[in-house]
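Protein modeling request. Please complete all fields; requests missing the sequence field cannot be processed.
Requester role: graduate student
Desired output: 3D structure, token encoding
Chains: 1
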Amino acid sequence: MMVTDGEIQVLIAAFGDPEIEKRHAAVKALKETGEPAVRPLITAVANAPDNDRRWYAAIALSRIGEPVVIPLIMAMETNPQREFRKYAAAALGEIGEPAVDALIDGMASDDAELRGFFSQALCRIGKPAVVHLTRRLDDPDETIRQCATLTLWQMGETGLSSMVEKMQDGD
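Delivered output (171 residues):
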């Protein structure tokens, strides 16, 4: 089913509707729209007049899944707005394992705050991210190595045991 840009904008506008059923229906319709809705939803997260609408746009992105990952990470790299990055990171965390490698690659950024949001998304993903992070403890990029270590540490028990095993295997 092909949805027009205008129809996508109408669905995004429904995030401000007082009726929760209409907001939920808009999220569902945007999920079904898939890739054509990605860029308009990223713009909606960035330009939302309030956090409720930003949250619904982020949820819709997370439901679309894998096609969102690269465009959303690229948008986080170019948009330093804290609220945008917070909700974008939450969406990536909800997408889960399909976002892991791109999030880790993004940690090569010079932007420390951005790296922190990527780490939060990876922590939200949890166990599925551990193997990928552990593999990157030997990454040629020092920043990625440090970020992978810190992220595993932030994960607590989930990440620490994997990091210790990796160190023991290396001896």
